[in-house]
Amino acid sequence: MRDWAGRLEQRREQGLYRKRQVLGSPQGPRVRLDGQSCLNFCSNDYLGLVNHPQVVEAMAEACRTMGVGAGASHLVCGHHQAHHALEHALAEFTGREAALVFSSGYAANLGVLAALATRGDLVFQDRLNHASLLDGVLLSRATLKRFPHADHQALKAMLKDSESAVSSSSQRFVVTDGVFSMDGDLAPLDELGAVAKEHDALLIVDDAHGYGVLGSGGRGSVSHYGLSEEDVPLVVGTLGKALGTAGAFIAGPRLLIDYLVQFARPYIYTTAMPPAIAAATLVSLRLAEDEVWRRDHLQALIVRFRKETAALGYRLMASSTPIQPLLIGDAREASRLSQALLGRGIAVSAIRPPTVPEGSARLRVTLTSAHSHADLDQLLDALAAEQSSIGCSQTGATA
Ligand code: PMP
What CATH architecture applies to the domain 18-47+292-390? Predict the structure, then answer.
């Protein structure tokens, strides 16, 4: 038997043990966490739609008319009209021929990679990609190659090098997050797209944190760069972040979507997402598209947060998105600071290894359009008060 208890103890000793806090209220800018009322800067509810009355009502009404669960997998008899309608809406939203809805982003990423890549193929991934994209390659049995973060030149060299090593039947894939979940920066999709095209590799973008937030009408990082389906053939989006519900989708050419329905095991061998979630997402998708003020307000909060935390001497990362990490470095120090903020009634997650590289522990502040400027004032006041306690000689902010 492996020493399970020893490994847990080691985590504790390293200050890396992760505790779950119990949420006793709806998600939102103010929550009850472990019984304590606090301001919340941890959620991915970027557009404040999690608890929107129209979205809630759509879900409640769909539960009354369709029941709570799908009752079966998609290929048996669980593919409801609501899933079908959502897939059409998402295809239209992303400007793709077709879309396929999954129960989670994790499953979508496993599904797309395990179905399309196979033994002998090469999958090139950004070093900071989400864990589900790495796990998808394991499931596919293809070979994983990781390129330095956002470095299209390094990718180009690796693709070139691989040319002599792969057989003519091998496929190559380039896979990247659109917005990096722990750093908040954007992948250079224009350059990655050009390199992938030049080397005949299929580019897949996981835009979990981009949809709803970036681009025209919230059409994500592909739209932010003004790219098309030709540049980025396959996109993955999640529904549990800016859209406020749950699940995910893959959008792309009809042929590949048809292929995924037949071969993506994480799609086939699981109960379909509750149809009421699909019905609620149809409403939140419309709100995300139409209510431009949500993105405008969010942008104003982001600009203010960066300016004022940089002035306090915090180290920012190169992010223009709602994910605004403050680099602390030491894991214990990040945890201590997160606890100190909680003591002041403000919830901010400490992100530590192994989620981020050793020595780069951080406070991951996420802003949402449901936050007010007064909420931000409170966060900034608390960060100012704690700054001296970090012994924060952390100057040289990258605003
Ligand atoms: N991709 C990225 C980039 C993510 O950040 C996440 C979730 N944190 C996922 C995929 C997984 O999505 P889900 O939570 O819907 O499983």
Answer: Alpha-Beta Complex (3.90)
Please tell me the class of the 53-289 domain: alpha beta
pLDDT tens by residue, 18-48: 889 999 999 999 999 999 999 999 999 999 9
- ipTM of the complex as predicted: 0.99
Average pLDDT over residues 336-354: 95
In ligand 1, which atom is closest to the CA atom of 44?
8
The atom of ligand 1 lying closest to the CA of 179 is 3
**Residue with structure tokens 């008319």?**
65
* Dihedrals phi, psi of 122, to nearest 5 degrees: -120, 130
Annotated binding site for pyridoxal 5'-phosphate: 105-106, 181, 209, 238
Which residues, judged by CB distance below 6 Å to any ligand atom, belong to the binding site of ligand 1?
104-106, 109, 130, 132, 177, 181, 206, 208-209, 238, 240, 248
The rounded distance, in Å, linking the Cα atoms of 270 and 238 is 17
Strand 248-252 with 315-316, pairing: unpaired
Read off the pLDDT of residues 195-212 as tens digits, 9 standing for 90 and up: 999 999 999 999 999 999
* Domain assignments of the chain as residue spans, ordered by start: 18-47+292-390, 53-289
Rg of the chain's alpha carbons, rounded to an integer? 21
Band of pLDDT at residue 391, cut at 50, 70 and 90: low
